[in-house]
Design goal:
about 350 residues; Rossmann fold; six-stranded parallel beta sheet; four-stranded parallel beta sheet; 13 strands; elongated
Amino acid sequence: MRLLAEAFTKRGRSSGIVELASQWRPRRLLPPGIPVWGVSAPSYTTIRRPRSWASFLRSSWQFTRVIREFAPDIVHVHYPLSQALPVIGAQAIPHRWRLVVTVHNSDIRVSPFQEPRIRPWQARLFERADAVTAVSESLLSDATQLYPCIRDKGHVIYNGVGFSWFHQPEADSSAQGKYVLFVGRLNEVKGVDILLQAWKQMCSRFPAVQLWFAGEGPELDKLQAFARESGILSSVRFIGRVNQAELPALYRKAEVVVLPSRREGLPFTLLEAGACGAITIGTKIPGIPEVIQDGLTGLLVEPELPDALASAISRILEMPSEQKFCMKEAAYKKVKQDFSEEKMISSYFEVFDSLAAMPEK
């Protein structure tokens, strides 16, 4: 959201950010002069809890204060969960602003099922939205199935990576050793356990290659214990959280970047890796095939299958250097063409401008 606000500000459009907070926070400024307000996070309303209605009214009134102070043409909601409440509350007052809602992944595929109370609020928000965007085709399809009212106003706007990712210096060829790379949070959703099981099957065939995990998370101890008990700890390296500035070189030097996720929206890891010219392997789950073209920019495997993942990694490691080069080039071109930050921002501009051109309410 800050990225979008900065981009709009640079293009001469006033932008502000409203965040849910523990209490009301008056206007403050972020560089380059982006105003930020904090609105008290509301409770989901229930008849049995009268205070929940007070919470809803309080957050709605605070959001209305921001609207009156900033006077936006567009209100853009990301991750429509509890923030749906104050926006809907503010809409009860006559207004001129248009509403855009963007869904990312778990806000559609997980939260409405884990927290059923959000469903009616999301339904109201989507019904009242002038446009709904999703970060992938598959996510828009899932959102439309859940909320059919989206069908005639849905758009796909892919996540984008910035200019600097495409213009990084070549990786230092003297860097120590060869490695297969995972980048991301070490949790069950990312399928890191499947990756380690696959590595156990194949690592003895590639003694000069290590498996590197870049990231932190709740599965770290389990992964380390599995590697130790399986006798493969010497071929696995847990390097922890990596600074953003260090990631490009890490991607470029990797033999292959692997993302064996069980659920994704549109993973930035694959976009960053492709922008750096890295070969990627991902699972055939919604979202990932929109980034990886199987056999051209990387490989796709079925989820939950260590054998298939081991085979795919082995295939890349044994691939002739000429074929690797072609795959890296294709990955770079694919991401630059379809997933640049510039294209993402321009797509949002098109949606916003089309709504601003509509007759006033």
